[in-house]
Amino acid sequence: MNLATGLREYAITSAFHDTRFSPIRAREVPQLSCSVSLLTDFEDASGYLDWEIGTHGVWIEFRLRGRRTTATFLPEIAHEQGWSKTETIDHLLRKGGFELPITDDVRSSIRLTRYQSKKQHLSYAEYVEMTSAK
After folding, report:
1. Could you report how far apart the first and last alpha carbons of the chain are, in Å?
2. Contact predicate 56/75, CB 8 Å
3. What pLDDT does residue 1 have?
4. Which helix (H) or strand (E) holds 101?
5. N or C: the chain end with fewer CB closer than 10 Å?
6. Does the predicted TM-score (pTM) go above 0.70?
């Protein structure tokens, strides 16, 4: 999927189909802002602690009820939440649906990929200014 198509599709999904939130209403548009994180520099980690808070996002893969399961956090999440590396991994396991007790053996069994991101932010007012200048 090319970047423009992906951004358009994910914007629509986020605005209208994310079950965690009510769909956006037209009257809310002027208060909106948008952030996009372009994920880069993917690297296989040597273990679940082989990444740096505030620098790397983490993507984990693990087996759950015989299925491959994944979960990810962007680079800023652990820092914003004040989590340690281990707490971040535990939250990712829970995000991915892992409900059993989390032990060092469980943590050591995951496959971790670290990555970086480049984030851009635009408010609706900035968008209107930018598009009206064309």
Report:
1. 27
2. yes
3. 77
4. none
5. C
6. yes
